[in-house]
Each structure stands twice: as structure tokens, then as C-alpha cells.
Design brief:
This protein has 507 residues and is an alpha+beta fold. Helices cover 30% and strands 26% of the residues. α1 crosses α7. 48% of the residues are buried.
Length: 507
């Protein structure tokens, strides 16, 4: 690997990996370092939506909403295996937002973002429509509109994959110890978190995309003492057994003017979230509180016929969002827009800091950063990421069913649920992953719930998966189903193959 780069990126979340992909595709030499696994922070702990953000209209975030609405179908088109359309049901609640206001907001939502493929809003009679059946009798009227679902962690990894294929050096489990200016370049000291091995590289420009750690990087890595730029906001979610049989999502209004979603999740579950509360501790230590659990259960019970209780929770998770601190009084009012700040002077190389942002606008954020980068390097290259498919995404946005049929035709031994999961995780690359396998036995050891050694070896070789948690919770969501014993077996199998390289053949 080279020891000198045009661009060095701190952070392997969606923003860092999106920037790495864009920059590598424009011909820049790029190195990205992530202290843990890719998407191990905020980017795998979201509500998993590619959406305009209907509620942001109330805070007059029209620019953000329009940009996000435009991005929905662009992202769907380049990654139709990990992003797909989802219909949202918004029941009208007497005493909260009036029906006319909801209709107005949805009219704006339908018409300000260049919607082409996603269906428009419609009004629902919840006493007659299927989607009204899981709801309490008081829910009589509602609206149904479109946004998209995303497998957030896989979107991050696919951006890193494409960046790597275009020449970027992607380093996981590598900590940035210090960054110091030496003339017109940065000297960057790195440490492998597994072996402790130290290394030094240089770069002409650094991008700080460390998410909720962005201020900590400035303080501890760059040795800069300044006021905080981010407002850390914790968002928590609970996962319960599937609450209803249809494929729609619910968006529920609460008396505190917040909203929560109830979303079909991994076929057998329902995801409920999110909360919004200020957070002041280590972002890596965030965990759902009793107060948040009570809030989410009470919010769901306001609408669903069948009451939820704590015993119904099968999993929970919390992420810390690094929102730009715009001085908003309440956490839910803080802007979700991104802010890009460049530090540059004649005596030092440039540093670009990323504050805030959301998954839906990560690609536009990367283009914004690249304009700053090219201002510094004095060149202009065309934007390209809006139409270039991510790995496995080279099929029509509406063609997932056809791809599943192709996969089953070549591999008729696959159970339906496994074929569907492989297509949703790997798209057209699922054909390459399975290769010449003629039976389930050819896929190697079975760890449970459709996870075979061939897939794990692929993830180790192609996607930087290093341990069982990487596979079970970020590359897949099979951690919801794998037992403790199965996780132990998976960890041991991966550990045994790690010394001779992640490309070891499945046996």
C-alpha cells in the first residue's frame, strides 16, 4: 500500500465511505480508516429509512426535505437490493395535527421532490382497509404515502466495496492516533487495534467524518481545543415479534409532537422507534433506557389493538446521531441537515470537517465535500455517483422478483426465504457468491437459519468481516435468530480461518 495519499478520511460510516467512493471514482488516491468495523456506529443504528422526512416540514427545513426527496429514487436505482419502496400509513389522531394540515404536508411531500416511480399519497378509510385491522377502533381515517426502506449497514459496506474497487485503501480496525501538519501535507500516525502495530502515512488533505466522534477527533487527534460543534442525540429502537401481516409501515403521532414508526423488519419482526434525547457520554456506550422503552411501548399502545409489554421485546438498540448544534431548544427540533466546514490557510494543509447529516443525503454530502476538495486541488471532474450502481445493484429497481427467479432457476435447491435474503443482501452478486454450488451441502458448514460457510467466507474476503458480530449484526441481521451456541460456533470458525486470510475456502 502507498504511504502518501491525496485524501485521508477518518471514519467508516455512511459519510466517510460515500466520500471515499466519490473521490476514488474521480481518480484521487484515497485512504479511509475506521477504528472498529464499517458502520459499527450510528450508520447501523438508524431507523433504516431513505426518506424525505415528513416531520421536518414543520420546522421549515424545506431545502433538506426537497434534497432528500430527490435522493430517494436515485439511491433506489443504484442499490435496489438494499433499498426498496415502502408505503407508510399515517392515522389521523383527533386532538393532534388536523387532517387538513396532514393533507397539505403530504401534497407538498408528493410534489416537491421529483417523484417518478414511487406511488402518490391516498386517503384511507381505516374502518374498511386492511391496514386498519391492527389498529384501535378510534382510528377511522388515515393517509398512505411513499418513502423507502434501507439496509443501512449494507449500504455503507457497498460504498466501501465500490471505493476499494476503484483504488481506495479501506482500513478497518485501524485507529488514528495523531494528525500533524508537516509543510503542505498531513503526517498521520495509525495503530492496528488488533496487533498494536504502528504505521505512518501522509496525505495532502484530511476529511474528518467521524460522526459522533468528530469533536473528539479534533480534540484528541488534532490536539485542538475548541467549543463543540455537534449536538449528540440518542435514538433508541425496540424490535418485537411481527405485529401484523401486511407489508406497510405505520407512522404514529404522539401528544409531544414527536412521531414513531412501526416497520416490518426482517420478515418475522416489527421495528418500533425512534426516541430523541440529548446524550453526553461515550457514543459507543449508548444503550436504551427504561424511560425510552416505556415511551416506545406507550406510543405503540396508543394505536395498536393488541397491547405490547416489555416481555414482547426481542432486541433493542441505540444510536447516537451527531447533529449540527444549531441552538434548537429540543432534540427533535435540531436540524438533520449536514454542515461541511473547511479549515485551510497558507501555512497548513486543509482539513474538512463533517457535522450532522442523514443516510438519505449521504451521496449529496459527498458531492459537496468533493467540491471543496477540488477547489483545493484546482481541478474539476464530473459528479458520477447518481447513476453508477453499487456492487450487486446492476438490475432494474423494480426487478428484484425477476432476479430471485434467476437465482432459483440456477440453484433450485435454495429454500425460498434463503433465495430472497441473498438477493436482498447481495443483488446480482448472489449469483457469484453461490458459484457452481449444486446443493446446500456445497455451501459448506451450516451455522443456522440459512447462514452457510460459503457466505461467511465471502464476507471475510470481500467485505472486511472479521468476527461473528460483523456477520450477524451488520452484514446480515441473523443475530436476531442465531442462538448463543450458534454464535460461538460461527466465531470459532471465523477465528480458525483468519490467520490464513479471509479468502480461505469454505470447508
Amino acid at each position: 500500500m502507498p504511504d502518501r495519499y491525496d485524501i485521508f478520511i477518518v471514519g467508516g460510516g455512511i459519510n466517510g465511505c460515500g466520500i471515499a467512493r466519490d473521490a476514488a471514482g474521480r481518480g484521487y488516491s484515497v485512504c479511509l480508516c475506521e477504528m472498529n468495523d464499517l458502520a459499527s456506529g450510528t450508520s447501523s443504528l438508524s431507523t433504516k429509512l431513505v426518506h424525505g422526512g415528513l416531520r421536518y416540514l414543520e420546522y421549515f427545513e424545506f431545502h433538506l426535505v426537497r434534497e432528500a426527496l430527490i435522493e430517494r429514487e436515485k439511491l433506489w436505482s443504484i442499490a435496489p437490493h438494499v433499498i426498496w419502496p415502502l408505503r407508510f400509513v399515517l392515522p389521523h389522531h383527533r386532538g393532534l395535527r388536523p387532517a387538513w394540515l396532514l393533507r397539505l404536508g403530504l401534497f407538498i411531500y408528493d410534489h416537491m421532490g421529483g417523484r417518478k416511480l414511487l406511488p402518490a399519497t391516498r386517503t384511507l378509510d381505516l374502518t374498511r382497509d386492511l391496514v386498519g385491522q391492527p389498529l384501535k377502533p378510534g382510528c377511522r381515517r388515515g393517509f398512505e404515502y411513499s418513502d423507502c426502506w434501507v439496509d443501512d449497514a449494507r449500504l455503507v459496506v457497498l460504498n466501501a466495496r465500490d471505493a476499494s474497487a476503484r483504488g481506495a485503501d479501506i482500513r478497518t480496525r485501524t485507529r488514528v492516533v495523531s494528525v500533524r501538519a508537516e509543510g503542505q501535507a498531513w503526517r498521520i500516525d495509525l495503530e492496528d487495534t488488533g496487533t498494536g502495530k504502528r504505521e505512518q502515512v501522509r496525505a495532502r488533505l484530511v476529511v474528518n467524518a467521524a460522526g459522533p466522534w468528530v469533536d473528539a477527533v479534533l480534540k484528541d487527534v488534532f490536539a485542538r481545543n475548541r467549543p463543540a460543534n455537534v449536538r449528540l442525540v440518542q435514538g433508541s429502537h425496540i424490535v418485537v415479534k411481527r405485529l401484523y401481516d401486511h407489508d406497510r409501515c405505520y407512522i404514529f403521532q404522539n401528544a409531544d409532537k414527536r412521531i414513531i414508526f412501526a416497520i416490518p423488519y426482517e420478515a418475522d419482526y416489527t421495528l418500533i422507534g425512534t426516541t430523541d434525547r440529548d446524550y453526553a457520554a461515550d457514543p459507543g456506550a449508548a444503550a436504551i433506557s427504561d424511560e425510552e422503552i416505556d415511551y416506545l411501548i406507550a406510543s405503540a399502545n396508543e394505536y395498536f389493538r393488541a397491547p405490547l409489554a416489555r416481555d414482547d421485546i426481542v432486541w433493542s438498540y441505540s444510536g447516537v446521531r451527531p447533529l449540527f448544534d444549531d441552538g434548537a431548544t429540543a432534540a427533535q427540533q435540531a436540524t438533520r441537515d449536514y454542515v461541511v466546514k473547511t479549515e485551510a490557510d497558507a501555512a497548513a494543509p486543509p482539513l474538512i470537517n463533517i457535522f450532522g447529516g442523514k443516510i438519505t443525503t449521504y451521496r449529496r454530502l459527498a458531492e459537496t465535500v468533493m467540491r471543496r476538495v477540488e477547489d483545493h486541488f484546482g481541478r474539476r471532474t464530473p459528479a458520477w455517483t447518481a447513476s453508477a450502481p453499487l456492487p450487486g445493484g446492476d438490475f432494474a429497481a423494480t426487478g428484484a422478483a425477476e432476479l430471485r427467479a434467476r437465482l432459483r432457476a440456477g440453484h433450485p435447491y435454495l429454500p425460498d426465504d434463503l433465495a430472497a435474503r441473498l438477493v436482498r443482501h447481495y443483488g446480482t452478486e448472489s449469483l457469484e457468491l453461490l458459484g457452481d454450488a449444486a446443493s446446500l451441502q456445497d455451501l459448506g458448514r451450516h451455522f443456522g437459519h440459512g447462514l452457510y460457510a460459503r457466505e461467511v467466507a465471502w464476507l471475510m474476503a470481500r467485505e472486511w468481516a472479521a468476527d461473528a458480530e460483523d456477520v450477524a449484526w451488520r452484514r446480515t441481521k441473523l443475530g436476531l435468530k442465531l442462538s448463543a451456541e450458534e454464535m460461538t460456533e460461527l466465531a470459532a470458525w471465523m477465528q480458525a480461518r483468519r490467520p490464513q486470510g479471509a479468502a480461505a475456502a469454505a470447508k
